[in-house]
Structures are given as C-alpha cells and as structure tokens.
Amino acid sequence: MRSKELRNIKLNKKKVKRVLFINLRKTSAGVNTPHMGLAILATILKKRGHDILVIDQQLIHNLPPINSFIDKFKPDVIGVSIYTANVPEVDHLIGIIEKEYPSIPLIVGGPHGTLYYDNMHLKNEKFIDYILIGEAELTIISTIEKAKKEKRFKLIKTKEIVDINDLPFPDYKVFYGWKNIRAYPIMTSRGCPYRCSFCPVASLSTRKWRSRDPEKCIEELELAKKELSPHLRVLVQDDNPLVDKKRFYHFLKMYINKKINMRIDVLNIRADSINEKLISFFKKIGCDSIGVGVEHAHPKVFEKINKGETLEQIEKAAALLKKHKMLGSFSFIIGLPGDNLERIKENIKLVKKFKPDSVYWNMLVPYEKTQVRKWFLEHGKVYNEIGHTSLVDTDFICDEPCVESPDFTKEERKKAHYLYLFGTIDDRLKIIKIFRILKIVKKYNLYREFIYWFPRGLIKSLKRKIELIKKAHSYSHREGLIKTIKRALFLVRGK
After folding, report:
1. Contact 50, 481 (CB under 8 A)
2. pLDDT tens digit sequence for 444-486
3. Which of 35, 181, 323, 344 counts the highest number of beta carbons within 10 A?
C-alpha cells in the first residue's frame, strides 16, 4: 500500500474481519494515556470495513481478564503491541492465546518488534504468525486480510516512509472504556534528525523528520473535543516537535485563535528550542510547564551523548523557566558512558540550583541499535534489558541496572539512584513507605541523605496532598461529582 492511498481507503465488504488489538502495560507503569499508534491502525482498518476492538491496559489499568474480551468479541485476528519493558507480560499473554485460542492468527508489532525482530526474547515466540517492522500503517490492511496460522512467523517490513499528513484521525471510540479518556495524545510530527547515543528513535521512525500540517492537527483536536470530552488534556508526543519552529508556532497560534481551550503539554522539548517567544506562546495556551531532557550535567559525560546542544544552552533554558515562573521538569539518565558516583553530584547541583517542579531519574537501558549499547559491549558489560524501562517507575525501588563498567558497578548505580531520590526530594519517596526506605538507607549507608530528606519530604508530601485535593475539586467542578466518582471507580475496577 502506498502512503497516499491512506487518504481514500476503499471499503472492503467481502472479507470483513473482527480484529482485537491489545496493549499490555508494565505492571508498575502509572499513566492513563491511550495508545495513539493502535488508534491510528484501528481507524485504518475500520475505514476498510473491519470490526475493531482495542484493549489498552495503559488506559484502563485494572482490566478484566483478556480471555473475557476474546470470548465475547470472538476475533478473527489478534494484534499485540510490544515494548521492551512489557515483554514478560506479552510473553505470558501469547502463551494463553496459543493454549486457549490456537486457531486465531497472532500479529505483533510496536517498538520492540522493530528493534528486536531477529531475537524477540520471547519464550512463546514460535506461536507468533507475523511481526510488523517499522511504520505499520502501510502494511496493516494486507497483513490483516491475509492473516492465517503460519508454521513460522513472517516478517512484514514497511518499504515506504509514511507521509503523516495521509494518516486518518485516530478513532478512540473503538477502545474499551473510551469515555474515560482525559489525556489525549496527538502527533504533530514524527522522527528526529538528531542521534542521541541512548535513543532508538532513529531506528524506529528513521532520522527523517516529517511534519504534519497544523491545520490537520487543529481539526483533529476540535473533533476530539466534540466526540470525546471538552475536558481533555492534550499531550504533544512528538519525538522533536520544534525542528521547524515556524511551523510549531503556527500550530500554537491556531490553537489560540480557534479557542480550543484544553490544557496542552508538550512532552519532548530540546533546551536549544526554549526561548522567550516559546514561553510566551505556552503561557497564552495555558501550558504552565516545560520538560527539559538534561541527561547529564557533567561535561565529560555530556559530550559522549551526542545531543547536538550544549550544557550552556540547557542552563540558559532552565534560567528562562525560572525567570518566567514556568514549572519545569528535568530528566536525567543514570549510568551513561563516563558516568560514576562522583560525577552524579553535578546533576544534583543543577537540580538544587534551578529547583524544577519535578525531576525524573531514568536508569539507562541499552536498547538494540543504539550507540550506548555498542559502547558498553566494548568497554563494559550489557545484561538482559528485557522487561526493563528507561521511564520513571511509580515505586522508589531501583530497577536492576542493565549495564555496568569498571568505574561504575551495578551496586554503585543502584546507590546513585537512591542518592538522587534523597538529594532531590523525589515524589516516590513517600512517608508511608518509611520502613522500606530505612532498609535502603541501612544497606547503602545513606543516613546523612536520609536526614536531609526526611523533613523536606514531609513538607513536600503535604504540599502534594493539597495539590491533589485541589485537582480533584477542580475535576469534580468541571464534570460533576457523580461523573467524577463513576470514572474513578471504573479506573480502579476496570469495569
């Protein structure tokens, strides 16, 4: 299928199939954002005439057993999105599908499929029929319509780069529990021209950055506001939305002029894109926070990242946020090449200097096809990264490091994780977990850090509770108390 054919998908009434898409989450993940990629694929198939149901555990955490959906929906094909972090959960699901529904063809895709298709690290890999590699929008129709049980899985590779202006608007009404969507992801561009050493994006969506017409983005948001809820929080999930600043400013102008009036957050912004003009736009659209990917503040570590920007630009951006009283969130990576226990102090100094509203400490994951993986294979050790995530977890316990080097062992990397949490009064250190925290303090000899954190942690915990009460009050004021309670119960029970 060619990209331009996505603009006018021909209806196929002869071979209508029932397709079940599934997105499982890593057990401890804590967000409630629907899977945009599956929504786009589902919409393409729906326009073709197929019946679609999406079960997204990232949206509804406490879902009923997957078996109940399969029994009721009776799909002809099942598709599962795989991330490296949720491989154990997916592997377990594949085993269930093969045991209880052996005649249903199984398709897998997602970032893990593209990065690890030659070794998926799945015990039940032999039960997969098709692996979609790359951008699946151009191969999903033919794969679904020809799907059957195979003796060995087939690799389905995308041969053409998708023009994202050809893609239909995602239809989230095919998601189970869609009425509970309040975080709305939108794509205004795809790809990134940079090649940060730790990032697999270039291998997932190519280094070719593609922009989407701002008019299409606004039209999609207007439709979402009408069809889903006027109380959505818009999340711009682009890998790098400000490659073309003029285009993105035009999008923000239209957002203001069209009076979308929904909170908008831009998740990935490079420090060299933050200036007075951007902050001014953000204030006009009601966005009060900006996230900055610092990665590491020590010059010797930073220079190995290959970000294409400087520490001076990062500090300048942080100073601008502070000047304009914008809430900032800084993200760092623990254990990059050249990192060690001594050099992590520079990161804590930067946080204390600019006092961001939130800080994210991510343990390095050496994904396939990244420069850091190659570096550690040559200069250190790479352990099994399957089931690990580079994203911040909801618990404070350190995930097992996937790499180590002679000057930064696995145990030292764990200690660094806790030094960061105590040194920056991390939200994951909750007073209610005090006994578990004290075990960590004893194990890593962090008594001084604990004394520094404890009174500040109490104060911050109280502030966060007040903020939560205010948010709950604001939410119930917007949508009504009864709806608020019903939605909360659904998210807890999953039904």
Report:
1. no
2. 999 999 999 999 999 988 888 887 787 776 767 677 767 666 6
3. 344
